[in-house]
Every structure is written in structure tokens, then in C-alpha cells.
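hey can u run this one w/ IPE bound, need the C-alpha cells asap thx
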Amino acid sequence: MPNKSQINLKTLPKHVAIIMDGNGRWAKSKGKLRVFGHKSGVRAVRETVEAAAELGIGYLTLYAFSTENWNRPKYEINALMKLLVSSISKETKTLIKNNIRLSTIGDVNSLPKDCRKELDETMKITANNTRMQLNLALSYSSRWEIVDAVKQIVTDIKAGNIKADNIDEELFGSYLDSSHSPNPELLIRTSGEYRISNFLLWQIAYAELYFTDKLWPDFGKEDFYAAILDYQQRERRFGKTSEQLTEA
Ligand code: IPE
Ligand code: IPE
Ligand code: MG
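ok here u go:
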């Protein structure tokens, strides 16, 4: 089993993003309803947040609900929203105690009112916390985020705030909903699926991808350490040759 002490704290990724997948299959394998899987996934969230903060990861982004997830059965959506409200409300104290700042990415205005209220309150209370930023991706999809950025850029061009000629990668990135966080260096997906499902497409251009068969409710600190250790063994070349990296 991977051990925390094997991790080099000097070469940690600043930002880790996770596609928390497999709650439904986990529940099904136990003969339970999908919603039971979502409820059980909360423990994995708690452990992962704790593991990341303890290591000294600066930003952790968790994909909790996608734009496409609105197409699920209504009762499942309602249960997820209820769970979101109760979990945030329960975990606020822990976030404060651990000096963690809560933030969101996604179309949060599409969430039910009580969810927005709970989120707003916790974000306000934790706004000045400095140990780690926890981003919840809610009603999020990368294509939504990119189209939304384009709309804002067009509005700013029309208003004369920016010139079309000045649009570059940096300016474009600054219009993304997630511009409050650096690009993730590591993206983890659980449940044995090898796809991105509309998550952070722009931001993961050079991220290291890590896939594990573990279903999300079974994911724990050791699994997080395993992903970090795997990341630390990769050579990130950014288009250069291996020799160029060792010469420098
Ligand atoms: C991830 O688990 C949670 C959400 C997408 C909200 P799933 O609900 O997708 O579980 P599986 O993939 O069907 O097993
Ligand atoms: C991705 O999981 C979204 C979240 C983890 C919130 P899905 O289960 O919705 O993705 P697909 O449908 O398998 O691609
Ligand atoms: Mg899934």
C-alpha cells in the first residue's frame, strides 16, 4: 500500500482535480439503490479533502454534478441536491477548523435556492481561509464554461473594454469560471472509465491523467497518495525532449 512518507512534498501538484465516479455501480453491487452510493460517497470526499490538505495541496477541484447529470431521473437529482445541502451544512465546521476555502465552478444559478444559500454562506465564512481551496464543480461542464467565456468576451469587446486583437490564451483563460485556480497538474478519475466527461477541457491540456478502478465510495487517503506517487514518477516534457529537461 502506498505510504504518505514516500511522497516528495517538494514536487506536489499545486492543483488536483477529481472526477468522482462510480457511486451508482457501488450501490448496485451491494443490492442497494443508487442514492445509497451517493450518500456513501460523502465519506470519500471527506477523506480526500483531508488527505489533500494535510499534504499541502493548494487547490482541489471535485466534479460533483455535471451539466449532463441534469438528464438523470428526477428523484436522483433531488436526492443529490438534498445531499449537497446537508453535506455542506455538516462540513462547514470542518472546513473552518482546517482553514479550507470553499469555492465553486459551474452554473450555480441553476441549482435549487436552498443549495445556493448553503453554498453562499459557507463560501462567505471560509473566504479568508488559506490552507487549501476546495472547488466544487456543480452544474458544470467544460463546454458550458467555454461558451460562457466567449459570451463575456464578446460583451466586453462591444463595450470597448478589450480589443479582439488582444485575445490570447491568458486573456481567454481569465474569462473562464475556474480562473480563480491554476490549471490542474493531475486529474484523477475513479470507477475504471477512461473518459473526461466534459470536465476542465481547456485546463487539462497538459495535466497528467490517472485512472483507477476503485469506485468512488471506496476511494480513500491511500488511493489519493497512490495517485500523487504515480504523478511524481512521470516526466512532464511539455513538448520538449527528455534530454532538454535533464540538461536544464
Ligand atoms: C458519480 O457516480 C456521481 C455523479 C455523477 C453525481 P455515478 O452516479 O455516475 O455512478 P455510476 O457511474 O453510475 O456508477
Ligand atoms: C461525470 O460522471 C460527472 C461527475 C462525476 C459529476 P458521469 O457518470 O456523469 O459521466 P459519464 O456519463 O459516465 O461520462
Ligand atoms: Mg458515473
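Residues 9-141+183-237 form a domain with the Undecaprenyl pyrophosphate synthetase fold (CATH 3.40.1180.10). anyway lmk if its weird
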